[in-house]
Amino acid sequence: xxxxxxxxxxxxxxxxxxxxxxxxxxxxAEALAVTGREDRLTHGFHTYxxxxxxDAAKQLLELVGGISVWDPxxxxxxxxxxxxxxxxxxxxxxxxxxxxxxxxxxxxxLPLEIISRMRSWGxxxxxxxxxxxxLPRDAAVRxxxxxxxxxVARELEGIxxxxxxxxxxxxxxxxxxxxxxxxxxxxxxSDTRQAKIAxxxxxxxxxxxxxxxxxxxxRRLEDxxxxxxxxxxxxxxxxADCRRTHPHAPWTPSSPPRPTPPxxxxxxxxxxxRPGWA
Length: 278
Prior knowledge:
A three-stranded parallel beta sheet has the order 1-2-3, covered by helices on one side. It has two domains: about 100 residues, Rossmann fold (3-Layer(aba) Sandwich), CATH 3.40.50.150; about 110 residues, no CATH class. Strand 1, helix 3 and strand 2 form a beta-alpha-beta unit. With about 280 residues, the chain is mainly alpha-helical. It starts with about 20 loop residues before the first helix and ends in a 9-residue tail after the last helix. Helix 2 packs across helix 3.
Protein backbone atom coordinates (compact mmCIF):
# COMPACT_ATOMS: atom_id res chain seq x y z
CA UNK A 1 0.00 0.00 0.00
CA UNK A 2 1.57 3.28 -1.07
CA UNK A 3 1.73 6.08 1.48
CA UNK A 4 1.14 9.72 0.67
CA UNK A 5 4.06 11.76 1.95
CA UNK A 6 2.90 14.90 3.71
CA UNK A 7 5.24 17.79 4.30
CA UNK A 8 4.41 21.22 5.69
CA UNK A 9 3.31 23.86 3.20
CA UNK A 10 3.29 27.64 3.50
CA UNK A 11 1.12 30.12 1.60
CA UNK A 12 2.41 33.46 0.27
CA UNK A 13 1.87 36.58 2.37
CA UNK A 14 -1.23 38.36 1.05
CA UNK A 15 -0.67 41.71 2.75
CA UNK A 16 2.47 43.18 4.24
CA UNK A 17 2.92 46.33 6.31
CA UNK A 18 6.28 47.51 7.65
CA UNK A 19 7.17 50.04 10.29
CA UNK A 20 10.17 50.83 12.43
CA UNK A 21 13.84 50.69 11.50
CA UNK A 22 14.21 49.67 7.83
CA UNK A 23 17.43 47.75 8.54
CA UNK A 24 15.31 45.37 10.65
CA UNK A 25 11.90 45.69 9.02
CA UNK A 26 13.04 44.73 5.52
CA UNK A 27 14.92 41.52 6.46
CA UNK A 28 12.09 40.58 8.83
CA ALA A 29 9.60 40.98 6.01
CA GLU A 30 11.79 38.93 3.68
CA ALA A 31 12.08 36.13 6.22
CA LEU A 32 8.37 35.99 6.95
CA ALA A 33 7.52 36.01 3.24
CA VAL A 34 9.35 32.72 2.63
CA THR A 35 7.11 30.09 0.99
CA GLY A 36 7.43 26.63 -0.50
CA ARG A 37 8.05 23.24 1.00
CA GLU A 38 11.11 22.45 3.08
CA ASP A 39 11.77 18.96 4.38
CA ARG A 40 15.41 19.00 5.52
CA LEU A 41 16.78 17.44 8.68
CA THR A 42 14.02 16.55 11.17
CA HIS A 43 11.59 19.32 10.17
CA GLY A 44 9.41 17.12 7.99
CA PHE A 45 8.99 14.34 10.53
CA HIS A 46 5.63 14.46 12.33
CA THR A 47 3.10 17.02 11.13
CA TYR A 48 2.50 20.05 13.32
CA UNK A 49 0.01 22.81 12.44
CA UNK A 50 0.91 26.45 11.80
CA UNK A 51 4.65 25.80 11.84
CA UNK A 52 7.17 28.55 11.12
CA UNK A 53 8.99 27.94 7.83
CA UNK A 54 12.51 26.57 8.54
CA ASP A 55 14.09 29.07 6.14
CA ALA A 56 12.26 31.92 7.87
CA ALA A 57 13.55 30.72 11.24
CA LYS A 58 17.09 30.49 9.90
CA GLN A 59 16.99 34.00 8.42
CA LEU A 60 15.64 35.46 11.66
CA LEU A 61 18.34 33.73 13.68
CA GLU A 62 21.06 34.98 11.35
CA LEU A 63 19.61 38.48 11.64
CA VAL A 64 19.74 38.66 15.44
CA GLY A 65 23.02 36.84 16.04
CA GLY A 66 24.00 35.91 19.60
CA ILE A 67 24.87 32.58 21.20
CA SER A 68 21.56 31.73 22.92
CA VAL A 69 17.98 31.60 21.70
CA TRP A 70 14.71 30.97 23.52
CA ASP A 71 11.49 30.13 21.69
CA PRO A 72 8.67 30.48 24.26
CA UNK A 73 6.09 29.02 21.83
CA UNK A 74 8.32 26.34 20.36
CA UNK A 75 5.57 24.16 18.87
CA UNK A 76 7.24 21.51 16.72
CA UNK A 77 10.72 22.92 17.37
CA UNK A 78 11.55 24.69 14.10
CA UNK A 79 13.47 27.53 15.77
CA UNK A 80 15.20 25.11 18.15
CA UNK A 81 16.49 22.92 15.32
CA UNK A 82 17.64 25.84 13.18
CA UNK A 83 19.39 27.46 16.15
CA UNK A 84 21.32 24.24 16.71
CA UNK A 85 22.51 24.17 13.10
CA UNK A 86 24.00 27.62 13.72
CA UNK A 87 25.83 26.35 16.80
CA UNK A 88 23.68 28.20 19.31
CA UNK A 89 22.32 27.22 22.68
CA UNK A 90 18.63 26.56 21.99
CA UNK A 91 15.88 26.63 24.60
CA UNK A 92 12.28 25.82 23.73
CA UNK A 93 9.16 25.81 25.88
CA UNK A 94 5.47 25.23 25.26
CA UNK A 95 2.40 24.56 27.38
CA UNK A 96 1.41 21.70 25.06
CA UNK A 97 2.98 18.31 25.93
CA UNK A 98 2.52 17.12 22.33
CA UNK A 99 4.54 20.11 21.10
CA UNK A 100 7.30 19.34 23.57
CA UNK A 101 7.37 15.67 22.53
CA UNK A 102 7.77 16.70 18.89
CA UNK A 103 10.29 19.49 19.51
CA UNK A 104 12.44 17.44 21.87
CA UNK A 105 12.58 14.40 19.60
CA UNK A 106 13.33 16.56 16.55
CA UNK A 107 16.26 18.25 18.28
CA UNK A 108 18.17 15.33 19.78
CA UNK A 109 21.79 14.68 18.85
CA LEU A 110 22.32 10.99 19.52
CA PRO A 111 25.16 8.48 19.24
CA LEU A 112 24.86 6.15 16.26
CA GLU A 113 24.48 3.16 18.58
CA ILE A 114 21.30 4.64 20.09
CA ILE A 115 19.84 5.26 16.63
CA SER A 116 20.76 1.71 15.63
CA ARG A 117 19.10 0.35 18.77
CA MET A 118 15.97 2.34 17.98
CA ARG A 119 15.84 0.84 14.49
CA SER A 120 16.33 -2.67 15.85
CA TRP A 121 13.51 -2.29 18.35
CA GLY A 122 11.29 -0.66 15.75
CA UNK A 123 11.65 -3.70 13.51
CA UNK A 124 11.04 -6.12 16.39
CA UNK A 125 7.98 -4.21 17.63
CA UNK A 126 6.47 -3.95 14.15
CA UNK A 127 6.76 -7.69 13.56
CA UNK A 128 5.11 -8.61 16.85
CA UNK A 129 2.37 -5.99 16.41
CA UNK A 130 1.18 -7.55 13.15
CA UNK A 131 -0.37 -10.42 15.10
CA UNK A 132 -1.16 -8.71 18.39
CA UNK A 133 -4.47 -10.22 19.57
CA UNK A 134 -5.89 -7.73 22.07
CA LEU A 135 -7.85 -4.53 21.66
CA PRO A 136 -6.78 -1.58 23.83
CA ARG A 137 -8.38 -1.22 27.25
CA ASP A 138 -7.12 2.22 28.22
CA ALA A 139 -9.97 4.71 28.66
CA ALA A 140 -8.25 7.46 26.65
CA VAL A 141 -7.83 5.08 23.73
CA ARG A 142 -11.39 3.77 23.88
CA UNK A 143 -12.60 7.36 23.62
CA UNK A 144 -11.22 7.60 20.09
CA UNK A 145 -11.77 3.97 19.09
CA UNK A 146 -14.49 4.87 16.55
CA UNK A 147 -11.78 6.52 14.43
CA UNK A 148 -9.91 3.24 13.96
CA UNK A 149 -10.67 -0.05 12.29
CA UNK A 150 -10.50 -2.94 14.75
CA UNK A 151 -7.39 -4.56 13.26
CA VAL A 152 -5.64 -1.17 13.20
CA ALA A 153 -6.44 -0.66 16.88
CA ARG A 154 -4.94 -4.07 17.69
CA GLU A 155 -1.73 -3.28 15.83
CA LEU A 156 -1.42 0.11 17.51
CA GLU A 157 -1.91 -1.50 20.89
CA GLY A 158 0.75 -4.06 20.03
CA ILE A 159 3.14 -1.25 19.12
CA UNK A 160 2.39 0.56 22.38
CA UNK A 161 3.02 -2.58 24.43
CA UNK A 162 6.23 -3.23 22.52
CA UNK A 163 7.51 0.29 23.17
CA UNK A 164 6.98 -0.19 26.90
CA UNK A 165 9.31 -3.20 26.76
CA UNK A 166 12.03 -1.31 24.86
CA UNK A 167 15.11 0.19 26.57
CA UNK A 168 14.41 3.55 28.17
CA UNK A 169 16.88 5.42 25.96
CA UNK A 170 14.86 4.66 22.82
CA UNK A 171 11.30 4.79 24.19
CA UNK A 172 10.71 8.49 23.51
CA UNK A 173 11.92 8.14 19.93
CA UNK A 174 9.65 5.15 19.34
CA UNK A 175 6.71 7.02 20.87
CA UNK A 176 7.53 9.92 18.53
CA UNK A 177 7.41 7.57 15.54
CA UNK A 178 4.13 6.08 16.75
CA UNK A 179 2.62 9.52 17.30
CA UNK A 180 3.53 10.48 13.72
CA UNK A 181 1.24 7.79 12.25
CA UNK A 182 -1.79 7.97 14.54
CA UNK A 183 -3.81 10.33 12.36
CA UNK A 184 -2.63 8.75 9.10
CA UNK A 185 -3.89 5.28 10.06
CA UNK A 186 -7.17 6.61 11.47
CA UNK A 187 -10.41 7.66 9.82
CA UNK A 188 -9.93 11.23 11.03
CA UNK A 189 -9.74 13.68 8.12
CA SER A 190 -6.52 15.39 9.21
CA ASP A 191 -4.47 16.66 12.15
CA THR A 192 -6.58 19.81 12.34
CA ARG A 193 -9.97 18.43 11.29
CA GLN A 194 -11.75 15.84 13.41
CA ALA A 195 -14.36 14.91 10.80
CA LYS A 196 -14.56 11.15 10.27
CA ILE A 197 -14.14 9.90 6.71
CA ALA A 198 -14.34 6.42 5.19
CA UNK A 199 -10.85 4.98 4.95
CA UNK A 200 -9.70 1.36 4.85
CA UNK A 201 -6.21 0.21 5.77
CA UNK A 202 -5.24 -3.40 5.00
CA UNK A 203 -4.06 -5.58 7.86
CA UNK A 204 -0.39 -5.32 8.86
CA UNK A 205 0.14 -2.04 7.01
CA UNK A 206 -0.06 -0.05 10.25
CA UNK A 207 2.86 -2.03 11.66
CA UNK A 208 4.76 -1.70 8.38
CA UNK A 209 4.21 2.07 8.37
CA UNK A 210 5.48 2.33 11.95
CA UNK A 211 8.66 0.48 10.98
CA UNK A 212 9.13 2.78 7.97
CA UNK A 213 8.76 5.85 10.17
CA UNK A 214 11.30 4.52 12.66
CA UNK A 215 13.81 4.04 9.85
CA UNK A 216 13.03 7.49 8.47
CA UNK A 217 13.51 9.05 11.90
CA UNK A 218 16.90 7.37 12.17
CA ARG A 219 18.01 8.86 8.84
CA ARG A 220 16.79 12.32 9.79
CA LEU A 221 18.52 12.24 13.18
CA GLU A 222 21.76 11.24 11.47
CA ASP A 223 21.35 14.18 9.07
CA UNK A 224 20.73 16.53 12.00
CA UNK A 225 23.83 15.33 13.84
CA UNK A 226 25.91 15.96 10.72
CA UNK A 227 24.49 19.49 10.32
CA UNK A 228 25.06 20.66 13.90
CA UNK A 229 28.55 21.95 14.85
CA UNK A 230 30.29 19.57 17.31
CA UNK A 231 30.54 22.08 20.17
CA UNK A 232 26.83 22.99 20.11
CA UNK A 233 25.10 22.59 23.52
CA UNK A 234 22.25 20.10 23.75
CA UNK A 235 18.86 21.69 23.20
CA UNK A 236 16.65 22.29 26.24
CA UNK A 237 12.96 21.68 25.57
CA UNK A 238 10.34 21.52 28.30
CA UNK A 239 6.68 21.98 29.14
CA ALA A 240 6.43 25.47 30.61
CA ASP A 241 4.33 28.63 30.69
CA CYS A 242 6.37 31.41 29.10
CA ARG A 243 5.01 33.86 31.66
CA ARG A 244 6.86 31.93 34.35
CA THR A 245 9.93 30.90 32.36
CA HIS A 246 12.85 33.27 31.85
CA PRO A 247 15.96 31.43 30.60
CA HIS A 248 19.07 33.49 30.02
CA ALA A 249 18.73 34.08 26.29
CA PRO A 250 18.84 37.56 24.73
CA TRP A 251 16.81 36.64 21.64
CA THR A 252 13.36 35.11 21.33
CA PRO A 253 12.51 34.65 17.65
CA SER A 254 9.21 32.79 17.68
CA SER A 255 6.00 32.07 15.87
CA PRO A 256 3.42 33.18 18.48
CA PRO A 257 0.36 30.99 18.99
CA ARG A 258 -2.58 31.76 16.73
CA PRO A 259 -6.17 32.11 17.98
CA THR A 260 -7.47 28.55 17.87
CA PRO A 261 -11.02 27.17 17.79
CA PRO A 262 -11.95 25.12 20.88
CA UNK A 263 -12.09 21.83 18.96
CA UNK A 264 -8.49 22.19 17.79
CA UNK A 265 -7.30 23.30 21.21
CA UNK A 266 -8.92 20.28 22.78
CA UNK A 267 -7.49 17.89 20.22
CA UNK A 268 -3.97 19.16 20.80
CA UNK A 269 -4.02 19.51 24.57
CA UNK A 270 -5.51 16.32 25.89
CA UNK A 271 -3.81 12.93 25.64
CA UNK A 272 -6.43 11.55 23.27
CA UNK A 273 -5.27 14.01 20.63
CA ARG A 274 -2.39 11.63 20.13
CA PRO A 275 -4.70 8.90 21.42
CA GLY A 276 -3.48 7.16 24.57
CA TRP A 277 -1.22 4.95 22.44
CA ALA A 278 1.34 7.78 22.46
